[in-house]
Amino acid sequence: MKQRKVLTEEERNQAYKHDMQKFAWVSVLGIATGAVSGFVGTVFAMCITAAVGFRDEYPWLLYLMPLGGLVIVWMYQKYSNPGNAIHGTDLVIDSIQSSEPLPKRIVPLIFSGTVITQLFGGSAGREGAALQIGGGIASWLGYIFKRNRREIHIMTICGMAGCFTALFGTPITAAVFAMEVATVGVLQYTAILPCTLACFTAFIISQQMGEPVTAYALSSIPSLDLLTAGKVVLLAAVCGLAAMLFCYISHQTSHIMQKKFRNPYIRVIVGGCAVTALIMIFGNTYSGAGGISSA
Question: What CATH class does 9-215+261-282 carry?
Fold first, then answer.
């Protein structure tokens, strides 16, 4: 059996000093990343709110949805490198798991594309955009300041969490969510401290800038018993199946559209007209950021 090495007093002091320096430096990275991603995330949230409010004031913008789609496709065609298109949140996760930095263009493209989508009533969630914008900002901050791969990995998670916090005002949820989504099924324990600091820094900045917290009122909370637990389990199963069905239909629809309409400009016009037609038939009940429109 291998004997454990006994450190001298000097070696213990050096190890303690090294750990404290590392602790301080990781804390600084978390706070700095949270500050930048929180600021940008708050501006992003304000732009979305302004776009939705403008659309609610002028509901005829819904009928120009294909035009908004054409603008977004043009931006992506012009500013995306051939053969290296932007693939949303998957691109951020791939960057975390590799040594490659995120494309510089991801932040302005996702930022402007999402705001334009909201302006014309397209249903684009803020969650994915927050992860992409925050991750993109943090990744390039890491490379600008020449941090090593592990530190950039942590900074990217902090950026994702910070931007998410700025949009929704949920620092603890954002920290856990970002650490989990970075590597599905594995919690990034090394990122707990900097990610938490990033989230609360972003939260403070968003509040100072006047961004309201997303809140939902609970009229009542049922008692926890076997019947309630059974209902929760059943609801979870139904929601899981619904999510699987939605993903399948979404992927199949995307595949069919790409096969039938190879030209992206024609494809976005057809898709925009289809969504506009559905709104005209069923009413404007789910447009914009997950149905936040009041129209």
Answer: mainly alpha
